[in-house]
TrEMBL record:
Keywords: Cell cycle, Cell division, Cell membrane, Membrane, Transmembrane, Transmembrane helix. This is POTRA domain-containing protein. Residues 86-130 form the POTRA domain. The chain crosses the membrane at residues 27-51. It comes from the Bacteria. It comes from Candidatus Yanofskybacteria bacterium RIFCSPHIGHO2_02_FULL_41_11. InterPro entries: POTRA_FtsQ_type.
Amino acid sequence: MKVYGGKNIKYQDKLAEKRRRVWILKILFFIGLSAAIVAFILYLLFFSGWLEIKGVSISGLDKISNDDFNRKINERLNSKWLGLVGYQRNVLVFDRDAFRAEALAAFPEIKEIFVNKEPPHTLNIDVVERTTAGVWCFASGCKYFDEEGAIWGEAARSSGFLILVIEDMRQNIRTLDRELLGSIMLISRRLKEDDIFINKFVMPNNFIGDFSAFTSAGYELLFSMDSNIENQIKSLEIFLAEKKNDFDFDPQYIDLRINGRIYFK
């Protein structure tokens, strides 16, 4: 049996304690070094101005004012993490997708937005606005619309064939019926090719599929969503071609709602 002296045990304890201190110091050193590196990176990114957005170039604005659009950009640039760090002012960190979603929600007249970053200090923003197809007048007021059915803004109630006007007499309707809009756009486009210009389309309050188109020549055209719109247009073209040389032909209305038949007065 071997016997160890007390001095040897104390020496081993001191050696183990020394190793523990060295190990703890190494850990603290690496923690401090990591914290310093992180602090230095944060300083470079968010406090030094090295990659701060200092210029924003915007193109494509027409319907939207520059001031309104700039306010939306500044809301994004001035947003802060934990209320302290203005992280969105960094050109690398700037969230293009978030800004795009915010701008599209704020400005329905915008169809698409493209944001390009040009480090170290510039954002280039290209805006594609919607093309106005006409004015849709609800009971609550008139709005602009495009061929995709998006509506925006406040429009003056008017009539005339220079811009497509739809008078929607139905109550509590505030969105567009895409199928109805498609039919109206088809009618307007095809009749314009035949030199027939529409002052306005009218959906009555009791709309169940029938609607009217009032022409610049003074007569009314009656259409129905329950019948094929393309066939109704073709029937009208054939009918008007037959009446072309009839100088006494001066109708008040032409009813195209029944397939294969035309009634007029």
